[in-house]
Predict the structure.
Amino acid sequence: MKRRTLLRTTTALGAATLATGAADRAAATPPRAPRSEGPLRAHVVLFDGVEELDFIAPYEVLSASGHFTDRTVEVHYVSVTDARTVTCAYGTKVRVEHRWAPDQADILVVPGGGYARREDPGVWAEIRRGVLPRALAAARREGLTISALCTGVMLLSAAGLTRGRPCTTHHRARADLEQQGGVLKNARVVDDGDLVTAGGVTSGLDLALWLVRRELSVDAAIGLEQMLEYEARGTVWRGERDRD
């Protein structure tokens, strides 16, 4: 049985504390009604050299969101290769059991890692190999939100998904992203409908909290903030695609 009742009680006790912050962020509240049919399916993409905090923060936020909604939330690590163990930037080893299946996802989350170095492993190595960028380019379809944070956005750029689109990335990659055709926005999270990007490392928390607000509810996001003892930071930029 989920801890939903206990956590909702905790959320209610903290509501007064969060009320002011929630009101300040009211302008960032998505205008559209979240979808309610079927589970919310999120796939977090892993590759060798991926930054630990880049993928762990969104994974935990999205997974924990199931405690604050009646909608089922399914979160999986996926890889473009077969089931295998991924070695992360700081040596953490993660077993990826789920196959690449963007047709069975509502959200893809692409973390970054290793962009500061050109050698293997990391984002540069994945761009050189081309397998992941090609898979991301082929994944785009109606009903799928492709999101990325930190230098994972550069994998979307290599896939041609950010050209001419509002976006952001880690500050050290912003010039590269703009040179490759991305339309840079000065915001921690940039929501252009089916493309959602975020800045460096810790912004994975804000990316995931925003996706929870957008796809589940404001209450779910506020409940998560209380549970995590973290308040969403910075600005969310929204494009016309997200306002439809």
User: Anything to note?
Assistant: Residues 4-24 form the longest helix (21 residues).
